[in-house]
Structure formats: structure tokens, C-alpha cells
User: What shape does this take?
Amino acid sequence: MTDRSAFAGLDFLRLLSWVSPAFPTGGYAYSHGLEWAVETGDVGDVATLCDWIEALLRHGSLGNDLIILHAAWDASQEVTRLREIAAFASACASSRERFEETVYQGEAFLKAASVWNVTPDKNDLSGVRWPLPVAQGAVFGRGGVSREQAMLAGGYTAIAALVSAAVRLVPLGQTDGLRALARLETVLLQIVRDAQKLTLDDVGGACFGSDLAAMYHETQTTRLFRT
Assistant: This one.
């Protein structure tokens, strides 16, 4: 094994840890408004779940997060720029629960990833909230993960979290959850390739149903998830 391939293998092993469901970000506690969508009947099977997630990728928050992650990856060594991107991403949250979901996970991600010495200094992190895609982009960039791998990893993590929530909420069987993941693979590949050509000026969305679901969830009577 050459030195170069050894380092590539090490980068890949780190990425597996950073996107593992066991990585301590608390992602299992959040549904991104999906809990309300299930209660109202908007999501009730594999087809409607895939439609919901695909819309978020093409026209909503998940697609925006990929653009933000890409920007953070580009600026991973520039602390001042990362702080600007973090403030921008925080301002893009469409509701209180969306804001809490992304910053709580992002800051937990940074804390856990600090074990690998790939995060900004503690002083550089203070005074700004750190949304998850910004934290991921910074860590992936500093950790040697390629641009496309970083975006695919961030996108897959978001999709897998929503599918896992739906498996518990609908409920779907584990096999149906895997069917959803398989159906969304080509969609994610396409969105990632498109997002690499976009900038923060392209952030925006039209998934009003998802945004409203996150708002309604704040007062939902019976809740399994924090958002």
C-alpha cells in the first residue's frame, strides 16, 4: 500500500465515523417536521415519503443544506468566512424548531469531531451558532474528504435520518425503509452534481408544506420527536 492510498483509506475511515448513525449528534431525536406530516396523512407509505424527501432535495431545506455544506467545505480553512456562512445558515431557518434542530446537531457534531483535531479552535467557534451543514462542510474539508464525497455524505445523512424517523412514525417496515433509500440514491446524486455549481445566492425554497409542518409541530399534542 502506497503512502497516498493509506491516507485515502484513513480519510474514508474517518468519513464512515462522521456519518455513522452512532455518531453522537442526537439526530435520532429530530424529524424535520415529518412527524406532523405523518399525523396529517401527507406521508403514509414509501411513495409519499420519497416524494416528500425528493421535494426537500429539489426545492427545499435539504437542497439548501447541500449548497451551504459546499460553501463551508470550500471555506473550511477560513475561519472568518466559516463564521459568516454559519450566521447566514442560521438566518435561513424557517422556524424555531428548524433552527434548534440544525444548531443543536451542528454543535454536537463539532464537539464529537474535535477528537480528530479537524475543527476550528474553541475561540474561533464562540459567539456564533453552528448549523449542521456548516459544521459538516468544515470538518469534511479539514479532514481530507473530497468535495463530492462530502456533499453525498451530508445529503445521505439527512435522507437516512428522515427515513429512520418514518420507519418509526408511519410505521414502515425496515425493508420499506431500505426501498426508500434505494429509490432516492439517483436523486441525491443528481442534486449533489447540480449543487456544486450553485452558491449561497441560490439558497431559497418552495416547500411551504414542510416549513409549515415544522411550525405546527411546535404545538403538536403527541410528539415522539423534538422537531
